[in-house]
Design a protein that fits this description.
Elements: H1 3-11, E1 21-29, E2 39-44, E3 50-54, E4 60-66, E5 69-76, E6 82-90, E7 95-97, E8 100-102, E9 110-112, E10 127-132, H2 133-138, E11 156-158, E12 168-170, E13 178-182, E14 185-186, E15 209-217, E16 229-235, E17 243-252, H3 260-264, E18 273-286, E19 290-309, H4 314-317, H5 347-353, E20 368-390, E21 393-408, E22 428-444, E23 449-464, H6 473-476, E24 492-495, E25 509-526, E26 529-546, E27 553-556, H7 564-570, E28 575-579, E29 582-600, E30 605-616, E31 620-621, E32 627-629, E33 641-643, H8 649-653, E34 662-673, E35 676-686, E36 707-711, E37 742-745, E38 753-766, E39 769-788, E40 811-833, E41 836-837
Parallel strand pairs: 1-7, 1-8, 6-9, 13-16, 24-27, 37-40
Antiparallel strand pairs: 1-4, 2-3, 2-5, 5-6, 10-15, 11-12, 13-14, 15-16, 17-18, 18-19, 19-20, 20-21, 21-22, 22-23, 23-25, 25-26, 26-29, 27-28, 28-36, 29-30, 29-31, 30-34, 32-33, 34-35, 35-38, 38-39, 39-40, 40-41
Length: 838
């Protein structure tokens, strides 16, 4: 860890959100008069920890920042019997209202109140769904991934096209505008791609989960930077009892039929063995004061993909194509008897073609099939420690670590490897590493003033590597590729209608994200108002190194002979690509301030008023390895690329800092009857940059990235780049660029803005059942979109230039032009069992 990151962590520089619950209410006497200065105490039934406050002059009390769990509540004052309300179940981010009536008597006398725990949501207009541990553990989950249950919430739908296999959309929002929290710290995966495919930075075992809550609309001003919604999860805490469990889930191929393609090729049934195992343990360190909880889950999966491709036959590799017509590119006439003389073979092309395996199926098409073994292993460790120093001071610390590796073997013997040419078809090694720390402290200064602070740090990395152990370029005679210790194996060789050869492009592809976080919230109970003030910071560091063309990519499409493999034998490439490494050290900072007032206007009406201010910087590169296309006709640099310079964020990112992000929130909850609540709310929510590919930040522009494509015209008799000659020296000089594709971003780029509104009616049907019907609407603006501003206009070429900017090729220009609207009618039923709500 760098000194700077360590320093930020120790200071708590970053961003977090509390994942706690609140009990509030009024204390009155038998006549209905408010009772000030009554002592209200809650006791966690599993840990014995206690928290106490006194009612204010209006008889109101607020017990904020409580850990989710089951509590007993008592209220006492001299001259009254002590009132006890047992079994109050608190969920994540819940505000439960519990009113108490004190009867005359002595404090030593106890009056038990046996009313049901609060079922109706009477204090907040937010829209969401609570998912408890019983639901998480009992429902079948493929892969034991708790985020699959998010789609149980009204308004939530799966979104597997979001670069995350477990992605989802909340009320029509963009998946990457969702914030996932784990014990109050950001657990969102900001490097989603084909290697991770997970929306979480860390994915805890479901046995370690206490519960989680999905908030999809009109949440409090305490939450920002979350335009799509919030998923708040908590890890279990230890209790006064020693508890633990162990588990294993096994899946195999014992009763599976053979894959049709494997059976056709005479291959054995592809193996499948998946085992998930682990356990949890938790208990007291010091009874009623200190507790521990640990969880481990391991995943071991071995499987295989049956892949069928076309490979040249032995006679083809000898130059004899039989009935397949091939022409001599020098004459334009067919080779006699469709046989290429061996004297015409390109030495490098023939050596590469010899890497093809012999067909194991008849014919010349789809004549090679094999099982490609895949292993996918992972380990997840979560630990949490809680300490109750006194009734006024409590703290926790959590450490989580996840490791994994996804490996895929080659389809045919290396270094040929074979494959369809798609990125996922090449052999690869993908190690995944993630860890995070979170800590929090809650301190009661007075009965009216309570503070809660969280700090956190998350480190997440993934690397896409090829399986080669040494550079084979010189052994095969491939010239012109700049040497690098990062480049191993062979370049990617694509042959139209045949299997690809060599090693994957985009390897190595290294990615790393570091997030340092801080959140502080102060709760002040004053009269009928509960004010919350707070501030947040989040610093994001995103490192990426990618190598698409630095290893060279050669394509043979058959344009010279009519057959791709024949072109390979002659060494005639249709396209040859070479480039430099792409390196990015991206930075982004976020700051937020808020004030929120929960105002009990009457015993039935609660109004929530909030105001939030968000400040999100655009991405900039640590070393200013960015350049931007200027699309402003009034600028003297119009139509050119300008490099990033030091100094202001505008100079480094090309985007003006958006400082006008005030987000008001207003909502009400009105208890129409004892069994009916009406809720409504409106709010403005600002998003964040979300996942950003390197190509969308300016680091892909020259001179920071040079990609050269040498394309042989279809009218040329021979290739411009015979593979035996390789790439010419000095090819990667920026002066050799001709009409490169570039990227630009608008200097005016405000944060995504979502206006949300809702109206809901909740009705208690029985003592343990409620139903809610809601209307939810939203309007989104300032969403990012790409346009090619160098698109040739329609019309005859003589009257219209081929492109507006002839020195460039495609110009992807990003602007915040996109917008969206959403309307839905939602129904929700809740049933309370002895273990909680589902």
């Amino acid at each position: 860890m760098s000194r700077k990151i360590l320093f930020l962590f120790l200071l708590g520089a970053g961003y977090a959100m509390a994942q706690t619950a609140t009990i509030t209410g009024e204390v009155k006497d038998a006549s209905g008069a408010v009772v000030p200065n009554a002592r209200v105490t809650v006791t966690n039934t599993q840990t014995g920890t206690r928290t106490s406050v006194a009612t204010n002059s209006t008889g109101t009390y607020v017990l904020p920042f409580l850990q989710p769990g089951t509590y007993n509540l008592s209220a006492e004052l001299t001259g009254f019997r002590t009132a006890v309300r047992p079994g109050i179940k608190l969920n994540v981010d819940q505000t439960a209202r519990v009113d108490i009536v004190l009867e005359p008597g002595t404090v030593s006398e106890t009056m038990a109140v046996t009313a049901e725990a609060p079922l109706l949501q009477t204090e907040s207009p937010s829209v969401g769904q609570q998912i408890e541990n019983k639901t998480i553990v009992d429902l079948p989950l493929n892969g034991r991934d708790y985020t699959q249950l998010v789609t149980l919430s009204p308004g939530a739908t799966p979104n597997h096209y979001s670069r995350a296999s477990n992605g989802f959309s909340l009320n029509g929002g963009v998946t990457m505008q969702t914030t996932l929290l784990l014990d109050g710290t950001d657990n969102t995966n900001y490097e989603i791609g084909t290697d991770t495919g997970n929306i979480n930075a860390l994915n805890p075992s479901v046995d370690a989960m206490q519960e989680f809550k999905v908030e999809t609309a009109n949440y409090s001003a305490e939450y920002g930077r979350s335009a799509n919604g919030i998923v708040s999860a908590t890890i279990k805490s230890g209790t006064n009892g020693l508890h633990g469990d162990a588990f294993e889930f096994l899946r195999n191929d014992a009763m599976d039929a053979n894959d049709w393609f494997a059976n056709r090729a005479g291959l054995q049934r592809p193996p499948l063995h998946r085992s998930q195992f682990g356990g949890t343990a938790g208990g007291p360190i010091v009874k009623n004061h200190a507790f521990f909880f640990v969880s481990y889950q391991g995943t071991r999966q071995t499987s295989s993909n049956t892949v069928t491709v076309s490979v040249p036959t032995a006679s083809m590799l000898a130059g004899d194509y039989g009935n397949i017509r091939i022409k001599d590119p020098l004459t334009g006439q067919p080779f006699p008897n469709n046989i290429i003389p061996t004297a015409r073979f390109d030495p490098v092309g023939a050596k590469l073609a010899a890497l093809y395996p012999a067909p194991n199926l008849p014919g010349t098409v789809n004549n090679y099939s094999a099982n490609q073994a895949v292993t996918d292993n992972a380990d997840e460790l979560d630990s949490r420690f809680d300490q109750q120093f006194s009734e006024h001071d409590a703290a926790f610390f959590r450490y989580s670590r996840g490791t994994g590796e996804n490996d895929q073997t080659s389809l045919c013997p290396p270094p040929g490897n074979c494959g369809t040419g798609a990125l996922g078809s090449w052999p690869h090694i993908i190690p995944l590493r993630a860890w995070s720390m979170a800590a929090g402290e809650t301190h009661i200064f007075t009965s009216a003033l309570v503070n809660d602070v969280h700090i956190g740090y998350t480190h997440n990395s993934s690397n896409q590597l090829d399986t080669a152990t040494q550079n084979l370029y010189s052994q095969f005679g491939i010239l012109g590729v700049p040497p690098s210790p990062a480049i191993k194996g062979l370049p990617a060789i694509t042959v139209t209608a045949y299997s690809a050869l060599g090693d994957r492009n985009w390897a190595p592809n290294l990615k790393q994200v570091q997030i340092a976080q801080l959140n502080d919230t102060l709760s002040w109970n004053h009269g009928n108002h509960n004010f919350r003030f707070g501030g947040e910071m989040l610093y994001t560091y995103n490192y990426a190194l990618s190598a698409n063309f630095p290893r060279g990519v050669f394509a043979f499409n058959g344009q010279f002979t009519g057959n791709g493999s024949a072109d390979l034998l002659l060494g005639d490439t249709s396209t040859a690509n070479l480039g430099t490494f792409q390196i990015a050290h991206l930075r982004s900072h976020y700051y937020g301030l808020f004030v929120n007032d929960s105002w009990k206007v009457t015993s039935r009406l609660t109004v929530n008023l909030g105001l939030r201010y968000d400040l999100q910087t655009p991405w900039w590169d640590r070393d200013n390895f960015q350049a931007n296309f200027v699309d402003n006709p009034l600028s003297p640099a119009y139509g050119t690329l300008v490099p990033a310079t030091g100094g202001s964020i505008k100079n480094r990112s090309f985007v003006n800092l958006d400082t006008n992000n005030f987000a008001p929130r207003v909502g009400l909850a009105y208890q129409l009857t004892t069994k009916t609540v009406i809720r409504s709310g409106f709010g403005i929510f600002y998003g964040f940059p979300g996942y950003t590919g390197n190509n969308d930040t300016g680091t892909a522009n020259p001179p920071n990235l040079i990609n050269i494509s040498l394309i042989s015209p279809t009218t040329a008799p021979v290739s411009l780049v015979p593979i035996s000659q390789g790439f010419p020296p000095g090819l990667l000089n920026p002066n050799n660029l001709a009409n490169p594709n570039i990227f630009g971003i608008s200097p005016v780029f405000p944060m995504p803005e979502i206006d949300q509104w809702n109206f809901a009616v909740q009705r208690q049907i029985t003592a343990s059942t409620s139903a809610t019907i809601s209307y939810v609407g939203s309007s989104s603006s300032h969403l990012a979109g790409l346009n090619n501003v160098n698109q040739p206009p329609p019309g005859p070429g003589a009257l219209n230039p081929r492109r507006p900017f002839t020195q460039w090729g495609q110009i992807e220009y990003e602007t915040p032009y996109a917008h969206a609207t959403y309307h839905s009618l939602q129904t929700q039923f809740e049933k309370r069992f002895s273990q909680g709500l589902v």
